[in-house]
Amino acid sequence: SEKVNLIDQAMKAGHQAKYVLFDSWFSNPHQIVQLKQRKLDVIAMVKVSSKIKYEFEGERKNIKQIYRSCKKRCGRSRYLLSIPVKVGRQDKDGAKIDARIVCVRNRANRKDWLAIICTDMSLSEDEIIRNYGKRWDIEVFFKTCKSYLKLSTEYHGLSYDALTAHVAIVFTRYMLMSVAKRDDEDERTLGELFYCMIDELADITFSHSLQLITDAMLASVKQVFHASEAQIAEFTADFINRLPKYMQKLLKKTSKNNIEA
Predict the structure, then answer these.
(1) Could you say which DSSP state residue 150 is in?
(2) How many domains, the chain?
(3) Using CB atoms within 10 A of its CB, is residue 226 exposed (0-12), middle (13-18) or buried (19+)?
(4) Is residue 143 part of a domain?
(5) N or C: lower Cβ tally within 10 Å for the chain?
(6) How far apart are CA 156 and CA 84, in angstroms?
(7) What is the pTM for the complete model shown?
């Protein structure tokens, strides 16, 4: 199909992907099998159709028949149903692949449900739902580019290279605007400042822990061997001198802070 051909072109150009996400409009067994044969796993919304069938418990059933025949999870579970199926043609030479269908509640209508199919059997239900949720961000991205950044209206030429350049320019606009919005509205700390803070906290935690271990060891030596204060001081000095330099500095710094406090 056209969509699979586009993916072939992208892979030939050197692009790599772990999952292909798409909605129910493009979700059909033939396309899913084609992508799996290209070593690409699919996470897609299942098309609710009586004509599209999957192999479930040895029988060919459509998604409504599968849903009605299975017991749903109750309570506040994130998903209603999770079942393994086989996707592919029924004829002898038809390719069949393993897949998992996860049914979730429709947030727009709590009485309704939606089904997501995934060909990566190692993924948990929560991971399948989370990965499919990323598709909405992609939809918002394209909607913004078309509605506000003139992706589909600014250029009407027939040159493939010119069209590619136009798309690149529009996407660059989006990225610049996203960075500006991040700086103006997002209250999260800057990345560099965050990592500096993490490093400082890690040092404090490590030095404090080292001091606690050392104090506990000295208390045990004093208790078990009935060592005098002079012997404890001699033991401590010898012990610290045997440690790596960075540990010596941390212990001395912690001891100094404790004295000042």
Answers:
(1) -
(2) 3
(3) exposed
(4) no
(5) C
(6) 46
(7) 0.61
Closest CA to 44 of 143, 139, 129: 129
Domain holding 246, by residue range, is 191-260
Which of 140, 160, 185 is the endpoint of a domain? 185
pLDDT value of residue 212: 81
Kindly indicate the confidence band of residue 205, based on its pLDDT and cuts at 50, 70 and 90: low
Our CA dihedral for 92, 94, 97, 103, rounded to 10 degrees, sits at: -100
Nearest to 116 by CA among 132, 139, 98: 132
97 and 209 in a single domain? The answer is: no
Q: How far apart are alpha carbons 168 and 188 in whole angstroms?
A: 29
- Res. 117 pLDDT band, cuts 50 70 90: very high
- Nearest to 208, CA basis, from 257, 241, 163: 257
Residue 9 lies in a domain: yes
Say how far apart CA 48 and CA 115 lie, in whole Å: 8
